[in-house]
Amino acid sequence: MKLICYMINLMKKLLLIFCLLPMTSFAQPEPAKLRYSLEFILEKVLEKKRQAHRPEIPFPRFFFESSTPLKQFQDAVEPQWGFRPERITNAFILHHNDIYILDEAAYYQKTGRCMDDSVAHELVHYIQGKYQGWDLHDDSLEWEAIDIQTAFREEFCKSPESL
């Protein structure tokens, strides 16, 4: 009988603790929002690369972490990267013409960045691969993407509302 009373009291305590936990702790992370349109970001990246817009080249599809299954990302990126990442990260998938973007607001707030500069970075790879036909396995191309991403961030992501 003592065991039953003990178990009932324990269950009451656990129920009380569960009810007192903030519901936000169970919610999905807040997704970040783009400050600028995808078209605007592409225009600025094209300017930095001194490239003209080529409408005959299909614009990439965009997938955001908060609304994309991990398996979809892994299946897309594995042939290009040679492994299956444990989580979705920023990536341009050349053979699918897809861009995957991490859209966790807390990440961008913590790093002092905006999601738009991640989009700019991946659009650099899109232009390198689709416009210029470059081999994206060339590590030096990453430096160009970082330079343009940084320039975009410094020009367009300074204000707190862009985070």
List keywords for this structure.
163 residues; 3 strands; Zincin-like; single chain; three-stranded mixed β-sheet; 6 helices; mainly alpha
Task: Write structural notes for this entry.
The chain is globular, with a radius of gyration of 22 Å. The chain contains six helices and three strands. It has one domain (29-162): Zincin-like (2-Layer Sandwich), CATH 3.30.2010. The protein has helices at residues 2-20, 38-49, 70-81, 105-111, 115-131, 140-156, and strands spanning 61-64, 91-93, 98-101. The chain is mainly α and 163 residues long. Helix content is 52%, strand content 7%.
Gap from first CA to last CA: 58 Å
CATH architecture label = 2-Layer Sandwich
Discrete helix count: 6
For the largest sheet, list the strands in their spatial order: 1-3-2
Give the DSSP E fraction (strand runs of 2 or more residues): 5-15%
The level of helicity is 40-55%
- The parts where pLDDT drops under 50 for at least 5 residues are 5-26
CATH class, please?
A: Alpha Beta
Order of helix and strand elements from N to C terminus = HHEHEEHHH
Give the averaged pLDDT, no decimals: 85
The radius of gyration is 22 Å
